[in-house]
Automatic annotation (TrEMBL):
Pfam families: NifU_N. A scaffold on which IscS assembles Fe-S clusters. It is likely that Fe-S cluster coordination is flexible as the role of this complex is to build and then hand off Fe-S clusters. Gene3D superfamilies: 3.90.1010.10. This is Iron-sulfur cluster assembly scaffold protein IscU. Residues 2-126 form the NIF system FeS cluster assembly NifU N-terminal domain. InterPro entries: ISCU (IPR011339), NIF_FeS_clus_asmbl_NifU_N (IPR002871).
Length: 128
């Protein structure tokens, strides 16, 4: 199947690959898997005192669309509030990357992972 140029660009030059120390209280981590294909995505956010996402990282074991979706969402969430990041939908990702229907679940993985990272950050905060 043909990948769009944007997918290939993110696949060749993924942004924000890596991870933050999970022990850092300003870090939220989300890890999700796609039952359909067995791919796994981990997204992390680093949040400022004022609730703005300052930085993001990802590690994805998966197809090109999953890698591109995670790379793209780490770029998008930077500088956003938690609420703004929460409202990013997989359809925005799928549209930007021109994903075909069979690859939509790859973008859902990115939406779910960022939501999981936000939840993790919030639960860490309230646990303090
Ligand atoms: Fe092969 Fe996702 S189905 S990498
Ligand atoms: Fe399963 Fe892309 S995440 S094929």
């Amino acid at each position: 199947m043909a990948y769009s140029e944007k997918v290939i660009d993110h696949y060749e030059n993924p942004r924000n690959v890596g991870s933050f120390d999970n022990a850092d209280p300003s870090v939220g981590s989300g890890m999700v898997g796609a039952p359909a294909c067995g791919d796994v995505m981990k997204l992390q956010i680093k949040v400022s005192e004022s609730g703005i996402i300052e930085d993001a990282r990802f590690k994805t074991y998966g197809c090109g669309s999953a890698i591109a979706s995670s790379s793209l969402i780490t770029e998008w969430v930077k500088g956003k509030s938690l609420d703004e990041a929460q409202s990013i939908s997989n359809m925005q990702i799928a549209e930007e990357l021109e994903l075909p229907p069979v690859k939509i679940h790859c973008s859902i993985l990115a939406e779910d992972a960022i939501k999981a990272a936000i939840d993790d950050y919030k639960s860490k905060k309230t646990a303090k």
